[in-house]
Request: fold
Amino acid sequence: MEGALNLTREAKRRSDDAALQVRGIEAEGGILANSEKQRKATEKLMNSSKDQFTLTQSQNQQKLEDVLDQIANLEGKIPGLNKQVGKSHIA
Reply:
């Protein structure tokens, strides 16, 4: 009988410890509240920098397209340059 009583007391102690831990997590200033505060701050930061990120990405895309156009233009001039170089070696 005493063994069962000890088991019951131990289970009650563990239950009380768990309840205390949950109260600490849920308390104002506890882990849960701090987590929510950090999440809101992160969301605010992401939302405030979203427009700048989108603008920068668009500008970078335009610059990339400009560079690709310049490369295509230069590649188009290579055959003419090759002919000029070839003529200078013959003369």
About this structure: The two ends are 116 Å apart (CA to CA). The first helix runs from residue 2 to 26. Residues 2-90 form one domain. The CA atoms of residues 67 and 73 lie 10 Å apart.
